[in-house]
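Page 37, continued from 36.
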């Protein structure tokens, strides 16, 4: 049986953290360029790599909005705090900001640039309350 994805409130409580292998630099136009090593698959290893050029890292250029969200992924702020800060800075509603920020965070996660840590719920207090009701 497969697990269901976490609900939106759990995702808002999550904390995005930079992948430690990501290197950043400024491009010729001043944009932030993030580079992450790629996992080498079987067809990217020798002898195939002797014959064909193989990229060993992937780069992504961020615009100013992306850079703002990237810098907020400091391992301390929750997704909700990042969304609220983005909404206030760009005069958006919380829901408009949530849509944009969460989509961008999903893209960063799929490209292995960040990791999102979802805190566990405290199940001990719920079980204690249920035990008191049964007595």
């Amino acid at each position: 049986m497969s697990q269901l994805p976490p609900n939106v409130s759990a995702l808002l409580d999550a904390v995005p953290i930079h992948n430690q292998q990501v290197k950043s630099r400024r491009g010729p136009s001043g944009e932030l360029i993030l580079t992450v090593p790629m996992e080498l698959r079987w067809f990217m290893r020798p002898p195939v790599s002797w014959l064909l050029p193989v990229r060993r890292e992937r780069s992504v250029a961020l615009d100013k909005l992306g850079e703002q969200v990237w810098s907020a992924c400091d391992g301390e702020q929750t997704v909700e705090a990042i969304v609220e800060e983005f909404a206030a800075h760009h005069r958006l509603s919380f829901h408009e900001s949530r849509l944009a920020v969460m989509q961008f965070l999903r893209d960063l996660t799929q490209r292995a640039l960040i990791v999102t840590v979802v805190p566990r719920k405290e199940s001990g207090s719920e079980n204690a309350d249920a035990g008191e009701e049964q007595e």
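Residues 31 and 117 are 27 Å apart (CA to CA). Flag for discussion at group meeting. The chain has one domain: 14-134.
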